[in-house]
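Memo to structure team: turn this sequence into structure tokens by end of day. - J.P.
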Amino acid sequence: MSMPTASRVHSPGWWPTKGDATRDSYVGTATCAKCHASKVATQQKHAMARAAVRAADAEILRQHDHLSFRLGPYREEIVTKGGKSVLTVTANDGAARLSADLLWAFGVGHMGQTYVYEKNGSYYESHLTFFSSSQDLNITPGQSLAPPRSLEEAAGRRMPPAETHACFACHTTASVINSQLDLSGAVPGVTCEACHGPGASHVVAMNSGPREQGEQLIMNPSRLDPVASVDFCGACHRTWEDVVTNIGLGALNLRFAPYRLENSKCWSKPDARLTCVACHDPHQPLEHDAAAYDSRCLQCHANQPGAKTSAGYRDSDHRDSDHPDSDHPDSDHPGAACPVSTKNCTTCHMPKVESSIQHSTFTDHWISKPLR
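Reply from structure team:
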């Protein structure tokens, strides 16, 4: 059964976003690459590796060095110059102004990028996000759509400490140390140790002790059972329990793939192969071609569809003798064959859904039978 991430991180052992390790227990990707060079090289091309960058390194801000948007009685601008990005909110009458230096950019920009700044010891999420669909600013998902009532409200939303910890723990590596937010040594993006845990003790053991002992000193998600495996990814992408216990998410839950996956009919009769990593290799860039996922679907579903003919009969009524049971489930293929096709499965069963709130299109991981 799915568990809330808060429960997972308080259990023994490493879990993404746990944040209880010391700074010197992290070794960095260069050390990991000494033994895992190919995995490190391809993982750095994954969007997760660019889940956050310092604002000074944000390519989107460099390419769009003057962004502006009107929010009721206020005008907001993000101007980038000389490696510095400044957020400025001005009242329409010009009588009042507020400025803040942007420190972090969250999101690789494939769909959007949200900015974080600091004020009086607290971190703020910018009220506006850059969306790739429009190549411009618009209101950050989850923030109020109502006209701001003050300069401060127009600029952004103060993030409570627990939320700040969670955001940085998911978008960066080694930013929460000894359970305290410490950005002095934070590594932008999701790197090896964000998922596998701090590697210092593992490296020492692998270099000097029995290999078996060293392997036990690093988190290996492949050892997890299917529910725990999906919850592992859900530490940042939201587990089923994380979503159902947060009733305020509403339409935003479309982007939380673990929650959507566990609502699928396939999940109600679980097959050990149905996990996030069955389709997505976290060490490889995300595959956007629908056809690339067909082989995964056909590992569980019979690969000969009983399609209807023009006369109204199913192909299975006249099935080829070489495939006598091809459209019936069995122990290796518990899912029935699709009556339509064995190609581009996700285009029908995991359609892309446009979210007006998020100004983006998401693949719905709630695997379902299309309505006809």
